[in-house]
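Re: the pair you flagged

First of the two:
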Amino acid sequence: MSNRSLTIAQSGKTMINNSKYLPLMVVSLLVLGGEQVCWAETPEEASTIGRKLGSIEKASTFVKLLKDTDAAKNLLFSSNGTTTVFVPTNKAFEKLSKERLQALIDPANKQYLERVLTYHAAHNTRIDRYVLRRIGFLRSGLGQYLKINPDRTGDVITVDGATIEEYDLACSNGVVHFIDTVLDPIELDLFEYLEKDGRFTILTKLIKRSGQTKLFQNRHDVYTVFAPTDEAFASLPKGTVDALLLPEKLDLLSDVIKTHIALGTWTVAKIPDVPPLGTPGIDVANQYGQELVYRTANGRGTIDNIAISTADLVTRNGFIHVIDRPLLPKRDSIITALERNGGFGEFLNLARDAGIYNVLGQFQLQVTVFAPTDAALKSDALKERLKMLKDPANRERLRAVLLRHVVSGRILTTNSIDFRRFTSQIDARVDLVREGAKRTIQGVQIVETDILARNGVAHGINGIIDEAMEAPDTDQTWQSFVGYVKDTIRSGNELYTAGKYSQASDYYARRGYELKARFAGNISRFYGINVQIILNNDVYRNRDYDFASTAWSQRNKFLELQRTLETKTPLQIDEIELRIPAKKQ
């Protein structure tokens, strides 16, 4: 044995005999100069993706190509981080044309090889078969999205059309799925896709004319485009497209194009860590600066009440949804929007009488209006009250009532979270509550959601918000805070124990929103507890689509809050909100 080999062997023997290294090491054999010597390494290093694939024959072509790259090789052999890898088998490479295979193995095309292999990996993930059945896309190492398509049973899952033949090879730094086809990265950007497709000649013509082509070709960000076809433009009044091409209409044309594109990934299908369209509390804003409201009806998705005929077309820098009509920028005031929508004439007349018409028509501030519909105001239930409010002697009272229907800022309700609290323009509290498909504002049902305008948003309601001052909050005590949390834990546990994991997760999320809206301020003020930090897992609660573990995690957050509250000394709050330390029994 050479001196060098002897030194290595002795070093390895010393490490093995030292008991403090044993829990962290495994012994393997390393051949140096034809002789076997002892070598020690961690279990994590021994079971990385690269090491495991190196011993699997059907992955030998992939591993051989991998060794000719830099970033991809380091990623798979490093025990830091996690990666989900879709590995083409040797037979998958044999299916390639001679030209493409040569392009992959040509040393001059190292960048291309790196790009192809990286496209097969999803960084910072460990996506197993369970999650694959529940998602529609997965972000690859290139930042592009792999399309995941399970069949109805979930037994066969494809990735970009390639069938997964073997699932869930567990590795210390991720998981491997074997596929029957080599994946090809998407090269077309949004504009190139639209141009090549053939259905969007008018749209691409307008994009070029508007000077917005670079926005659609920006590869530094991800965008979502709602793309009207040529047939969709035919639904506009005759001459509209020609008018948009005129030099004096360039500003309007630019606004129209920006209305159809939004920064970010907005899909109908689910993506881990990415909220899909329609997620409660998540609003989509286009490049024009206004919201795009996503709704579902009869299993079909709509955007601003325009049907999405084809969803989730993938490009190099984003997604395309095909829509049945062009979108138009909201350039009018709330008054005009309500007039165009119809059914709010009575409310607008009352707004004139009360002197708040100007609040709805100005453009300096953004407001949200909860407008009673004509059907509500003409109903027998409101007949006497409305007669009283219309009396000229009660103009101030009418103004006070209507100002309670106006809130500062833009508030959307179609995809609202379950509980939100606002202060109206008369400084009165209004609570927005969502229970399934039903939405109410201060107990009055919202029947039309998200009528968008340039200066705000309007919603139709089927009544008048009560004008009485609210009674003092009798529930703002230590006992009520702890009681609310305990009730939440108990009710959520009942749902969980019954196997209703998704409902339990929904319940915890709803109660969390309400707690933060109703109690968080006083809990912080009286007891110095930051509820927002403790209950911080609401929006992305379905990130792994594993509601059993998600609901359990949410329960633990409430339990943490309960225990924190129970460490505090209770306070007594009397009718005039004086705080006196509770007497010891």
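Second of the two:
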Amino acid sequence: MAIIEQPRTNVALPAGTGAPALVTPKEAKGMFARPVEPKGWRDWVFTVDHKKIGIMYGVVAFVFFIVGGLEAMLIRLQLAAPNGKVLSAEQYNQMFTMHATTMVFLFVMPMASAFANYFVPLQIGARDVAFPRINAFGLWTFVAGAIFVNLSWFLGGGADGGWFMYAPNSTKMFSPGHGVDFWAFGLQITGIASLTGAINLIVTCINMRAPGMSLFKMPIFTWMIMVVQFLLVFAMPVITVALFLLSFSRGFGGAFFDVKQGADPLLWQHLFWIFGHPEVYILVLPSFGIVSEVLPVFSRKPLFGYKFVAISGAAIGFVGWGVWAHHMFASGLGPISVLVFSMATMMIAVPTGVKIINWTLTMWGGKLRFTTAMLFAIGLIVEFTIGGLSGVTHAVAPSDTQQTDTYYIVAHFHYVLFGGAIFGLFSGFYYWWPKVFGRLLNERWGKANFWLMVIGMNLTFGPMHIVGLQGQPRRMYRYDESNVHARFWNAISTVGAFVLALGILCFIVNVVITHRSKNPAVKAPLDPWDARSLEWMTSNPPPAHNFDAIPTVHELDEFFHRKYAVDHETDEIKQIATAEQIMAEQMAHAEKDIHLPSPSYWPLVVSLSLPIIGFGVIYSHILIAVGALVTILGLFGWSMEPSVATKDDYEPPAPTDDAIKELTA
């Protein structure tokens, strides 16, 4: 797409801002001419705009959040009372397997990608990601893989070996249906999406930062996303190898985990957990980044110890590679291995604790505003700390051996991922919603959303610590009436799950009410939170090209420093410009003839070829050749299309009177 060159004029600014004189509304119309993509479904399906791709990642991920939540509710209903009859043993195995798979791979990871795709280019002052068409390919590949995994429900039943899919339980002998096949190949497809997205965002962060933005002037959210992308680059090949071996064993008679032929089933556990523990930080670090953006804004203070927070994120990513075997203490690794991984598990608590301390000191002495975004950020600190403390007990090998395969592990895992990752994502929803959609979510509904989720989460997962320490195993689909403690605490957990679901429903209602409302109060101003970073230095929502002029960065929290300065006589911080004035100055110095990539349908074609290959692996090898042919043709078409659109591709839209009045008032 091309930004069509328009005559640029200047708007009225206060003295000292560096921009010339006033323009009339008629003259200002030229500033608002923007090219548009084709309307209708093609506008979204063929787009390569990182913002639309981010929105679509978010929508698809949230749909799977609902799917995973419904699966969880069926699990809780089955365990609500002794001798539950909601699910059979086979259905229960499928349900908890698909619930965990959905939440980890199809909700938290892609939702983090939604935030990363939308905000990383904005936070570093870039027009788009480094490889926009590869970005679109990543989106559609994730969608294809997610649908492929869930097709198993309709083609014989879901995967039933647990989200960890330990061998030999995942072999044909113990799981003869095709659920595991769909699971294994579907996750390989989503892994391709994660890997291409990771390379794209790494190049974007390194090569496309605005002039003057060094690594230690990047916002913490972008820092955490960059660390996560490096984790993905090294972790995804490991799980891809494991999934390939599993698929080859099931589909082509391989013996990679067959003890009779000299293989070792522990090979799968090592491969899975070498990926699986860095995966925990792949899930939570984006939320750590979100909280690190939200807390300073609503504390009216800069982030305490910015460099420590950034470096501790990188340290978590590094040390996270050395703790995987604490998932395997019960497998007979031997005392030396257990000792080493116990020490590493204790060590990783240090950089995590650094973040907790820095977040707390950021709030200390600040002028706190308890918006919904702030409440979810504080909720993450509290709930993740509880999960972290229970996690440290896994470093004590004798204790961990007793806790392994009990509900204590389930409780710990959910405090880390739900209390950590998902609370952080909801904080990001409320903080950045006005930036993405130009509307403010309702705070009353938001606080109801928060409190119901906090109460529901602790009611659901808190009791699991108790029943786990009392010996209730994981993956047990029934328990006897004589187990009084299990009866009581499982009933409490089920009530908590419904409270939690009600909290999620409040969020959905909030979104619907906000976007149907005709009340002008829901329209977001340019800078609704008095924010600090560059993404707020453009309109809500941003234009296709993000910035009229690429900003030059002089300070960490550049946007804040353009609004405020220290009065050297009184040492007080005084406002020197508003967001509207800064935006107007950007438009007054707008760049001309900005070129952006044109829409393309070839990434979608290549993505759709991958499930065809998957069906070939499972059902008919002829389909493998068909899928490979579609892949080759798609890549050929992709390589032959022009890199950018011409000026004649799109007509500029009509300017809005409201926007003109806003800048010429």
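The longest strand covers residues 564-567.

-B.
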